[in-house]
Structure formats: structure tokens, C-alpha cells
Amino acid sequence: MAAKNILVTGGVGYIGSHTVLQLLQQGFRVVVIDNLINSSEVAIQRVVELAGDNGNNLSFHQIDLRDREALRKVFSFTKFDAVIHFAGLKAVGESVQKPLLYYNNNLIGTITLLEVMADHGCKNLVFSSSATVYGWPKQVPCTEEFSLSAANPYGRTKLVIEDICRDIQKTDSEWKIILLRYFNPVGAHPSGFIGEDPRGIPNNLMPFIQQVAVGRRPFLTVFGTDYNTKDGTGVRDYIHIEDLADGHIAALQKLIEDPSIGCEVYNLGTGKGTSVLEMVTAFEKASGKKIPLIMDGRRSGDAEIVYASMKKAERELNWRAKFGIDEMCRDQWNWASKNPWGYGSPDSQS
Ligand code: NAD
Ligand code: UDP
């Protein structure tokens, strides 16, 4: 069977780069488009190296998704079997400060992509949604049927895009769409050659812990110690980035093999909740570094406990996460210790 052609938007970013590597390793041909607004081209060079001979099956175009003509050109050169759509801005705090930037980039980018896909007869899509659409869940584990809400413009872009996908599929049954709701991706490729490299001050827990461990920041602020949880700190469902990438391959297989998939949504998590302090302890064990802590109040908008029900993905995608928090911290530390300044240098960071 001829190799499948997959377009990956945002494929230079954290989740994209790990997924692109797995796609190449599994024999897919991959075209990546990314405007590099939140990523470094070094990541894609490293993916090519890690992929060995399969690295020849990757091509990269520095394109903004909203550039319709550039996008059309990419579609006119290759007939894609499916698109995995990661590209988007993702910083919650920034989305509150700059809502129009987020609506413009994430919504117009996605609508342009969907229009160009339809024009070229490519109607198979995997989209990066987020557990953020569960808001502050009334109960856990979160199942895909829960009611949805958004606490900020970033979350609203995910909700709107999910709705757009459901709408277009309803009126045109040729569309096959899988919406993946990620929980908290952490860790790095076991080689330590690619990993997460956020610009500026990290918003998320693990990149922040990592920067404390390598001496770039003096302490971690723990947001909230009075939650109704085992130790008072917030609980999340952390998932190893390799498992998450693997979940995309499972979704892609389902999309290609199931003619009646329609528009389906799946959680990608582990189904287990871990507190902030448990994560800090696991990281200290993996790295041998002490993480100084400052206990502070709750961060506005944060939920208390969020973790996934994995029943649907296990049943229908035949997929489940393999790694636990010890492996997540081991691989995060391996990446951090080999690349304390990410893909850049001390001069290129704030
Ligand atoms: P990332 O920022 O590392 O990757 C996103 C990539 O998209 C970047 O390389 C960026 O340069 C690119 N991009 C942004 N806007 C673009 C545009 N208009 N045109 C072309 N490229 C553009 O983020 P990530 O962590 O890899 O996340 C990927 C996707 O998964 C995002 O949609 C994000 O919202 C979603 N998601 C992430 C998490 C998480 O915790 N990392 C959780 C849930 C959902
Ligand atoms: N958190 C923290 N200090 C930080 C960043 C995050 O205590 O510097 C906590 C946060 O309050 C939450 C958990 O770590 O309970 C995970 O936060 P993250 O932003 O990584 O994920 P999200 O809240 O979006 O699920």
C-alpha cells in the first residue's frame, strides 16, 4: 500500500514535533506547516535526524495558516489523506490579555484551513482540543459527554472550533473528524533531543519546575494549598508526550479505517490524578535536584481536580497510555539537563 500523506499544522511545536517523529517512524509521509511563532526550526531538524532514513519523508514550509494562497499551494502539490491540526496559540493568560489575537489566529487559521481542505477534497481531520473545555468539572473522571464551558478566550477558541467541526460534518457527511481532548502533556522524547521549549515565563507546571531545576528560576510558586484534594494542591491528569503522540497515530488509523466515524471526540490522558506536590516530589527523585517552593494563593480560573475517563479511547481507539509520572519526570529531566536553554541559548531567552 502506498504511504499515506499527512499534513501537520503546527508540527514544529511541542506536541507536533513528537507526533511528526512517530508518524515518520511508522512510515507516513509528512508535510509540516508552521509559522514558527512559538517554536524553533531546530526542533524539525532534530526530528529529521532522529527519524534516520525516514527523515527523507518530511518536508517543512514556514507558512501562516491564515495565508490562504500559500496554503492552497501546499495542497496543490500533494494530495493529503488527512490533516492533523495542532497550530494555534495556547497561553491562557495571554489570551485574556489579547483576546483578538487569539480569536484571529486560532479561529481564522482553522476556518481557512477547513475551507482549503474542502476545496481540495481532503476531509479527514484530527484536531487538538483540550481538557480546558470541561471547565471546573462537577465530577471526575471527565467523560466525553460532560457539558462544556470555557473560562477564557483560549478555551473559547477550542469550544468554537469543536462546534464548527460538528456543524460541517452534520451538513457534509464526507467529513471525518476526530477531536482529541488532551489533558496535561509533559515529558520529552527519551533521546532528550526534542522536548518542550516555551517562550518567556512558562505558564505550565512542568516547564516551570524544569527551569527551577536547571537554575533558570529560583523557586516554584505553588498556586493554592487549600483545595479539597489529598494534600491541598491542584490535581491534574499528566500524560507522557510519547503516549500522547501515539494517541494521534491511533486516531489517524481510526479515521482512515472507519468510514462511519463522523465527528467523534476522545479524551487523551491516563485516567489518573496527580497533585502539584506529588509531581514536584517525582521530579526531585528523577533529577536529584531540590525544587524550592513558595506556597501561594489559588491562580484565578484554576479548577480543583481534573482527570480523564479513558474508557472511550481505550474501547474505540484501542489505545491507552503506557507511562507513569516517574517516566514523565525522567524524560523531562533528560531533555532539561541536555538542553537547559531549550533549543536556544541563554542570550535568546528571557
Ligand atoms: P506549541 O505552541 O508548542 O505548538 C503550536 C505550533 O503552532 C507552534 O509551533 C506555533 O509556531 C504554530 N502556530 C501557531 N499559530 C500558527 C499559525 N497561525 N500558522 C502556522 N503555525 C502556527 O503548542 P503545543 O503544546 O504543541 O500544542 C499544540 C496544540 O495542542 C495547540 O492547538 C494547543 O492549544 C493544543 N493543546 C496543548 C496542550 C498543552 O498543554 N501543551 C493541552 C491541550 C491542547
Ligand atoms: N501550578 C502551580 N505553579 C505553577 C504552574 C502551575 O502550582 O507555576 C499548578 C496549577 O495551579 C495546577 C497545576 O499546577 O493546579 C497544573 O497547572 P498547568 O498550568 O500546568 O495546567 P492546567 O491548569 O492548565 O491544567
Automatic annotation (TrEMBL):
This enzyme's EC code(s): 5.1.3.-
Cofactor(s) needed: NAD(+)
GO cellular component, one term: cytosol
Pathway: Carbohydrate metabolism; galactose metabolism
Top-rank lineage group of the source organism: Eukaryota
UniProtKB keywords: Carbohydrate metabolism, Isomerase, NAD
Catalytic activity: UDP-alpha-D-glucose = UDP-alpha-D-galactose
Domain NAD(P)-binding: 7-331
Example of a GO biological process term: galactose metabolic process
Signal sequence, start to end: none
The keyword Isomerase appears for this protein: yes
Gene3D superfamilies: NAD(P)-binding Rossmann-like Domain, UDP-galactose 4-epimerase, domain 1
GO molecular function per UniProt: UDP-glucose 4-epimerase activity
Family named by the database record: Belongs to the NAD(P)-dependent epimerase/dehydratase family.
Protein name in UniProt: UDP-glucose 4-epimerase
